[in-house]
Amino acid sequence: MRIKINLILLFTTLCTLISCSSKYQKNNSIKGIWKSVGYGKILKIDSTTYKYFDITDISCLPSKEGNISEIKNAIQISNDTLTVKLGFSDYQYSRIKEFPILCKQNPKNKNDILYNFEVFANTYKNHYAYFELNNVDWDNVYINSKNKINSKSTELDLYLVIKDMLEKLKDNHGSIEPTDEIYELAENKIQSELEDETEELREYGDFEIAGIVADYYIKEDFTKDTWLMKWGKMENNVGYIQIKAMFLYADLNVNDSLVKENGFVSTYMDAFDNLNYEQQIAEEVAGISKLMDTIMQDLKETSHIIIDVRFNGGGQDAVALEILRRFNADRKQIAVKKAKHNNGYTKKTPIYLELAKNPYTKPVYLLTSQQSASATDMIALSSMELNNLKRIGSHTNGAISDALQKNLPNRWHFSVSNEIYTDKNGQIYENIGVPVHYELNYPNDRQTFFRSVANDLEKDKINILKAIEKLLDK
Question: Among residues 65, 168, 127, 112, which one has the least CA distance to residue 408?
Fold first, then answer.
C-alpha cells in the first residue's frame, strides 16, 4: 500500500508540474490584446486584421485598423512583449488578458464638449514630457481652462480653450485640428479682435524664401526632377544644396487634375494617408535617397558643400538622416530618445546614423535658423557627431520631440510632445535648439528673418562665406 500511495503522489506531482509548465509557458503568437508601454494605445490583433485604440483614464477610441499584412513585417515578439519597429523607433507592447472595459463600453456622447475637453486634458496629463522643462503648473492650467467651458459651450469655445492651453503648455509639437468650419470661425473671431496694423509688410512663405535664396546663390544649377530641393555650384567650386522640407519625397503618382484643384501638398497627403506607417517611411526614404544619389554625384568634385535648411520646417526624421548619412563614413550613435510613461519614462532607445559607401568627407556647412524645426532640428542634432560638419547661422527651433498623434471623441485630431530626445551624452535641446559653431544672430521672428534675408541677398551670402573662411582658418 505504501508503494502504491507513493506512486500516486509521484503521478500527482508530475501532473501538477506539467500543468504549471503549460500554464506559464510564454505565448509567442502575435494574436491577442496588447497595451503600449507609454503612448496610450491598445493594439488588438486577430488572424487577419489589426485595430489600434487610443486609451486614456476615461476613454477608449478606435484610431486605425487594417489587414495584418500591413504591419506583420514590422512586428517582433519575445516573452509576451510585442515590439513594433517603425523607422528607427521601437515601440513595445505588453500582452494583457482582456480587452479593457472602457473599450467594451458604448462611448459617451462623442460631441459632448466637457467630455472632449477631459479626454484632451487627460492625454496631456499622462503623456506631455515637458511640464518641468517649461515650468508649467499643469493643475493651474487645467483648472483655469476647465472653468472657461460648461454644458452650454460650443465647439468654437472648445477649440479656443484648447488652443489657449497649447500656448500655455509651450508644446512645440502640440496642435489641434478642428473641422474647417470651426477653424474659419475661430480665425474670423481672432482677426476681428486684433487692432489694425499701421503698416503692411511683405510676407514670405517658407518655400518661397528658400527658392529666392537658392536662385541667388547658385551659379551653375544642376536641379532636376524635384521642386523640393535645389542644388548646384556657387563661385569657386562651392557646392550648394537647398532643402525646403523633410517630407513629400515619396513617388505616389498623384493625380495632376487633383493637384491643380487642391494643390500638391493636400493631394499628396491624401494619397500618403492611404499607406501604413511602414510604407510611408519606406517611400519617403526611397524618394530622398534617389535624389541624394544624383546630388552627391553632381557635387562630388566640389571643394566643400553648403547645406541650407534655414527655412525648413521639418517633416520625417528618417528623411533627415538619409540626407545626413551621405556625409558619414562610419555607423555611429547620434542621439537617444525616451517617452513619458506613468511617473517616469520608457526604456531609452539609441538612434544611429548609418554610413554611406562613398561619403563626402570634405568640409560641410549646415545653415540653420530658429525656423529650422522638427526633423530639421534632428539633422542639426545628428550633425554634432560629424567632425567634417560645422553649423552656421543661429540655433534651431528646438522642436525635437516626436508628435504623438491622437483623436478626440468628436474626431478632431490633436498631438502632444511625449518624447525626450538628447544627444548621446544626455544633453536636451528641446526649446533651446541645437547651437551653431558660428553665430549670425538671425531675428527670432519668422517674417522679420525672412525679410532681412530677402531685402539684401548679397549681404546674406557674404556673411555665410565670411563665416566659412573663419571656420576654415581655425
Answer: 112
Quick one: which H or E segment has residue 435?
A: none
Write the DSSP symbol of residue 334.
E
DSSP 84-120: EEETTEEEEEEEESS--HHHHSPP--TT-HHHHHHHH
Instruction: Assign 192 to helix, strand or coil.
Output: helix
What is the amino acid identity at position 401? S
Instruction: At 413, list the grid cell.
Output: 485630431
Query: What is the DSSP code string of 258-269?
Result: HHHHH-HHHHHH
pLDDT of residue 118: 96
Superfamily of domain 206-398+433-473 in CATH is 2-enoyl-CoA Hydratase; Chain A, domain 1 (3.90.226.10)
User: Which residue from 231, 246, 384, 249 is spatially nearest to 320, judged by alpha carbons?
Assistant: 246
pLDDT band at 274 (very low <50, low <70, confident <90, very high): confident
Residue-range domain boundaries for the chain? 32-104, 113-193, 206-398+433-473
Rounded distance, CA 9 to CA 3, Å? 10
* CA distances in angstroms from 354 to 86, 324, 330, listed in the order given: 16, 9, 7
CA 34 from chain center: how many Å?
23
Grid cell for residue 364? 560641410
Amino acid at 361: T
Tell me the DSSP string of 125-140.
HHH-S-TTTTT--HHH
Q: Give every CB contact of residue 399 below 8 A, 6+ residues apart in sequence.
A: 172, 173, 314, 373, 374, 377, 417, 430
| CA–CA separation, 204 and 448 (whole Å) | 10
Rounded Cα–Cα distance for residues 320 and 325 (Å): 9
What is the pLDDT at residue 26? 56
∠ CA 470-246-418, nearest 5°, is: 100
Geometric angle at alpha carbon 15, from 10 and 17, rounded to 5°: 95
User: What one-letter code names the amino acid at 369?
Assistant: S
The per-residue pLDDT for range 45-59, each reduced to its tens digit, is 998 999 999 999 999
Q: What end-to-end distance do the CA atoms of the chain give, in Å?
A: 95
Q: What is the chain's Cα-based Rg?
A: 26
Bridge-partner residues for 340, per DSSP? 345
